[in-house]
Amino acid sequence: MLPPFLKNSYHRYKADTTRFTEWLVQTAISCGTKVEDLFTPDVPKSSKKGSKRITKIPLKGYATLVDVIVKAGVKLPKTIRFVLERAIAIRKKFAVAFRMGGGEVDEKADKGHLHFITVLEGALERLGSAVDAAVERGKRQAKKPRKEEGPIGQEIPDLLEKLTLDDGDDGDDGAQGPIVEDVGKDDKPKTTTQHQTFEIEDEYEVELPESFFMAFCLLNDLNTLRDFIKETWTEYKDGIIDAMTAAVTTNSAVILGKEMIDDVSSKIDREDFPDSQSISVTMYQLRCLLDNVPINPSRRRAGEPFDLDTLEIADWSHAMATILLQSFIPVLQPGHCPFYRKGHFGPVDTSKPYNQRSNEQKFQSDREAVLDVLGEFVFLVRMKNAMWLKDEITETMMDMMVTKKVTLNHAFCIQVFLDVGNVLEPKKSAPFNDLRMTSLRAKKSLNSLLSLIKKHPCPLWPKAMTEQTQGILEFIENHLLKDVWIPLKEKSAPGFKHAEFHLFKENPILSGLTMYDMNLNLQDLGLTAINTWKSVFPILHLYNLLEHAREVPTLDWKDLDLFLKFHDEKTIFIGGRPVGIEDSFKRFLLFWGMPATFVSKIVNGVTKPENNSRLRQAVGTPRAIAPTTVLATAFHVALVEDRKASFSLAIVEKVLEYLDSVPDSPTSSPTNAFNILKRKWKSTKTLTPLQLLAILRRNLATEEPRLLFNYIGLHERCLDFYEKARAHLHDKLVQYNGPNYLKDIEKETPFVVFYIMHAALMSSKAQRTLFPKGPSSTSSDLEFGSVMLRRSGEQIREYIKGGKGEVACKELRVFSKMYGKVSEGGLETKQKEEKDVYWTAIEDVVDPKALAMYQFGRLDGRDI
């Protein structure tokens, strides 16, 4: 079921009509009308104290209530106008969808449905025009140009003005939520009826069952999700986002779609729709009937499971996917893997883009794509789920192979599978190619990590991390660099030519999720290594100190700069970046975990150089850094622990925490889609599924460079630098500390930075004693200079001269889609902003058709 803060379109419609009805009644009461004298309340069965009375308001009673309000001159609040307009819009959409084709419709049912809309429109028109008519006329005259005269893109700001900050759908009972606009004015009448709910009494429910409207809303929501998914993979195809972002967003959309289906299936009338499969088949047949399209099998051409002239209707209702899956069920036999031979039903013409093909060509390519992959799911069932992880489509289709029953969940999943493939065609395997490149990169990093574990053993390194590293390497070798399933498939189907990595190539979502999981593991291993060996932090403190030393030329270690950009400097530098030697040394020791009292003794010279070996005994718990990828951290738990990409409530909460925490951009406009969602969430704590997915996609794309940052490689280079620095400064280190300093460094290589900074501090203090006034008027302890710091700077400059200082940055330029993108304000950003506006506003604008046409040219990409 959907989480309580997410509402599908039917829930929103019910909440909208109930809210308008309650406002109408309560306003009429405040004007002196006794509604109870007009309408008889229905007493609930429950006799518990505080139970609400439900009063059904017949449609003919609306005119009476409107008359009272109009005569009293009460103004219609913006929020109430909005919810009524939204309710009318979805009802109109339903009416249009089921009166297409010019065929005769049942006169009574059609008249009843249209009468329902007419009553609501009449109430809206009278309430809206009764007050401030002159002002409204003035506003209309001032508009330049009229909407229909300009391009649809200019309408977006106007449409966004109608976005409500209060959905008023805090519960299924339609209780009125908090009002943001017009609070204290006309929205909340002073007189209210306690413990009583008013609802519309649909007098034509017998002729037009509500369950068909529920089914329409569900299919409408599912197809809107499909459009969002198609745009997501179009962005991947165009190089705007990466395969990980596209896959995780799609997988999340599939989960939300399945929850919508389960939600409606649990509430819909079983007499009209016995099960979820019947929703797609019945709605398809009804649409064909209303369009005067015969569904008699005798009228079909040879080899057609349905009339291909109705392909668009079959696609909208998910009937085509249902029919294809049902045709596969008889093929399932115990102990048999039914792999499909391409071309079995004849040649498939893919010379044209999918949307330019004929209905017959579309069906042929879709049928072949579906049948080609279904055998893979049967094989996985036979293998007893032997997978690294499963995407939601794979999980759902494996369930179908076990139960041998087709539901709307299965049809929706396979339809999304087809949509993604058709968008990426002919490069459907591109995400798998990205995964292969990630595998090669990961293999190199993991092998380096295992070598470092042997070369620099650390007792604090968890053994489980070594096992995890070896497990990932084994998976890469057996499943991504070579296909170990091929011999097993050949045994299951002798004589059949099996393609390597077939499921990964055919299912871009699985490839993208696997790549996401692999990078999550690399990040986890890299950060654990850095926190365990403390490899990066010492060089960060030294690097920061050298940047302020006048005798040290400017250093440019780009990987360290990027590391600091990705992580919280206040954590690394204990409150902020230090400037002088003493301040830097203090913060370095505090970060290392030493008690403040002991730090004071070292800084003041109480501890002598020959006793430095005792310093390790004073180390407490060093500070550690955490991932800065909020969503990656949440998904990591699901992927690593469950081996399933679960879109759990915890992940949803992370998305919404992100929405709460990110400050408004000073460069973005008030109608920025992201800012609109922030205001909406903070006000109502509700979102639509599309809005949640839009936030998820945006945040995933933002996190991508942080997730791809090679922590293992930086860890390796830092350890390598410490060894070279020790060799370069060995003579000075022996001079200051004696030969025993090597014992500490051999145990923990990064500790060489302690001796460098300690020597610089003692030298500074000695010079300050000899020259109290210093060579200048400044009081900085860097003014005297330091041989140790100067030689350390020379060593860093020598080390990064060969390109070792920007390896991680170069990797990001190769692997990341987002790293180095233009800042906000460029053409690409503007276009992306318009797309974000579309998806965040489509369910909230009064007339979604106009905004949808801006994106697709027609409503939701379909003529309904």
From TrEMBL:
InterPro entries with a match to the protein in the record: DUF6604 (IPR046539)
Domain called DUF6604: residue spans: 11-265
Segments for region (Disordered): 163-193
UniProt protein name: DUF6604 domain-containing protein
